[in-house]
């Protein structure tokens, strides 16, 4: 891959990663999960990091976020965020928050505190970001919940995470992440615990809110088609290395690596050939009515 500063997040990217490697201890010594990765994310850009399971996506994203286990070894030629070098070398010990960066994980249940209500958690984030009063924080929390589509704010604010559905929890996580006013939001498989239509809805929400707030996105996913639709640029990982990157809409045309082409080819395409055989809502309703008429519940 040749380096083109415009394609790689511009000349002064918000996130600048060059030559980043991550290794974990293994029975035979050390095993490399990320090898010499270079990626950049511009301010306001929405970038997706895709690849098969085990390709190193989470290791790369968490090395950037500072959330790797202490046993992981991170080396990088450059690792800077908003012009400041990030220290992730040699297993940074206890994970710590990087100002201006927020992270959303696959399963909100593991990242939301199970003991505290959504309202307390949201208020705490808002107050630590803005130092406002408790009632101002409650108003802001309500408005964030509405923005992420949780309109029954009274109930949601009082609920503990386990009292919400998976989709509601993921939306609450987005509210928490964005309420802190991050410049970069790293989302690791934010929708893989959700069904297909909820996944699309959450991705749409993520894209729209990030655009509205000017937040850059680094979305980690194995769903190449979903990412193609909801990101500006895609980065493809294979066996720990970045093998392709380019504008999402043109990835078919710009892919240089066989793995990327294979990945794009193997996604089922609901083309016109079989469209007439797919059930429509009307056909399902007609069939249900016919069954009900025959006494089948
Ligand atoms: N804490 C860890 N200790 C040791 N090895 C690890 C650890 N975390 C990840 N690995 C290894 O690093 C490699 C990359 O894993 P990683 O989780 O980064 O992949 P991924 O692309 O995010 O996969 P998935 O799509 O399944 O989430 C894998 O071989 C994995 O076994
Ligand atoms: Mg992962």
UniProtKB/TrEMBL annotation:
Subcellular localization(s) per the UniProt record: Cell membrane
Domain of life: Bacteria
Gene3D superfamilies linked: P-loop containing nucleotide triphosphate hydrolases
GO MF term (any one): ATP binding
Membrane topology: Peripheral membrane protein
Record keywords, A-Z: ATP-binding, Cell membrane, Membrane, Nucleotide-binding, Transport
Residue ranges of domain ABC transporter in the record: 17-264
SMART domains for this protein: AAA
SUPFAM superfamilies registered for this protein in UniProt: P-loop containing nucleoside triphosphate hydrolases
InterPro entries per the UniProt record, alphabetical: AAA+_ATPase (IPR003593), ABC_Ni/Peptide_Import (IPR050388), ABC_transporter-like_ATP-bd (IPR003439), ABC_transporter-like_CS (IPR017871), P-loop_NTPase (IPR027417)
PROSITE patterns xref list: ABC_TRANSPORTER_1, ABC_TRANSPORTER_2
Membership in a protein family: Belongs to the ABC transporter superfamily.
Protein name (Swiss-Prot/TrEMBL): ABC transporter ATP-binding protein
Organism, as annotated: Pseudonocardia xishanensis
Upper lineage: Bacteria, Bacillati, Actinomycetota, Actinomycetes, Pseudonocardiales
